């Protein structure tokens, strides 16, 4: 897979003001060479565009949709209402209520319309990208192997941090 190929993942956001806060989702997809498209559309400001996009997404070859929004964050839910593709909800932090508003509006879906909601804050966007990759990897062995390598590298990274911390604690104790 590569970025020039037809997109398998869509990253949608309610406003371009969301982009700086969520672009780690695309960085994760790029890291794994998963082609994606990035669009701004709003459940409230451009509802017809959202309906058209979501209801034709599967036939256009998309496999997973990440939907990010802040405040009264209904984008992921509305997208999920119009598609059978898996939808990953990404609540965007807000100045007013810190993102709790976005989180609750995204996660509290009624039964029969699932949205897999990520956390608010730094980890959420990256996890949205990685979760999309994990969904694709269910039927893609190459991607599965890349995820295994990623997990091994993560293990090594944290183990190195642990060794460094032990060293720091020993040195502190010797002072
Ligand atoms: C939401 O309203 C968007 O997802 C964004 O997080 C928030 C504010 O949008 P702007 O007023 O910055 O365009 O729909």
Largest pleated sheet? 5 strands, parallel
- The stretches of 5 or more residues where confidence is low (pLDDT under 50) are none
Give the neighbour order of strands across the main sheet. Answer: 2-1-3-4-5
Strand content: 5-15%
By secondary-structure content and strand pairing, the structural class works out as: alpha/beta
H/E element order:
EHHEHEHEHEHH
The N- and C-terminal alpha carbons lie at a distance of 53 Å
Query: Which range best describes the helical content: under 10%, 10-25%, 25-40%, 40-55%, 55-70% or over 70%?
Result: 40-55%
Bound compounds, please? 5-O-phosphono-beta-D-ribofuranose
Mean pLDDT: 96
Alpha plus pi helix count: 7
- Number of beta-strand segments: 5
State Rg.
18 Å
Global morphology: globular
Short description:
With 175 residues, the chain is α/β, with parallel strands linked by helices.
How are the SSEs placed, and which strands pair?
Blueprint: E1 9-13, H1 19-22, H2 24-31, E2 36-40, H3 47-56, E3 64-70, H4 75-81, E4 87-92, H5 100-107, E5 116-117, H6 123-137, H7 141-173
Parallel strand pairs: 1-2, 1-3, 3-4, 4-5
Helix pairs in contact: 2-6, 3-4, 6-7
The structure holds 5-O-phosphono-beta-D-ribofuranose.
The site of 5-O-phosphono-beta-D-ribofuranose (RP5) has 10 residues, from β3.
Walk me through the structure:
49% of the residues lie in helices and 14% in strands. The protein is α/β, with parallel strands linked by helices and 175 residues long. Helix 4 links the parallel strand 3 and strand 4 (87-92). The termini are far apart. Strands 2-1-3-4-5 form a five-stranded parallel beta sheet, with helices on both faces. The protein contains seven helices and five strands, in the order E-H-H-E-H-E-H-E-H-E-H-H. Residues 13-15, 17-18, 42, 69-71, 92 line the site of 5-O-phosphono-beta-D-ribofuranose.
């Amino acid at each position: 897979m590569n970025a020039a190929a037809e997109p398998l993942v869509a990253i949608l956001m309610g406003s371009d003001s969301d982009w700086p806060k969520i672009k780690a989702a695309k960085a994760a997809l790029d890291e794994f060479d998963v082609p994606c498209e990035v669009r701004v559309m709003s459940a409230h400001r451009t509802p017809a565009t959202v309906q058209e996009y979501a209801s034709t997404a599967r036939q256009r070859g998309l496999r997973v949709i990440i939907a990010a929004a802040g405040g009264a964050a209904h984008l992921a839910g509305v997208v999920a209402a119009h598609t059978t593709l898996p939808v990953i909800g990404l609540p965007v932090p807000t100045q007013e209520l810190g993102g709790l508003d976005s989180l609750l509006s995204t996660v509290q879906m009624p039964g029969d319309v699932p949205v897999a909601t990520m956390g608010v804050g730094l980890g959420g966007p990256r996890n949205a990208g990685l979760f999309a990759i994990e969904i694709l990897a269910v039927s893609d062995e190459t991607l599965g192997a890349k995820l295994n390598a990623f997990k091994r590298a993560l293990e090594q990274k944290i183990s190195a941090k642990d060794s460094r911390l032990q060293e720091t604690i020993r040195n502190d104790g010797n002072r």
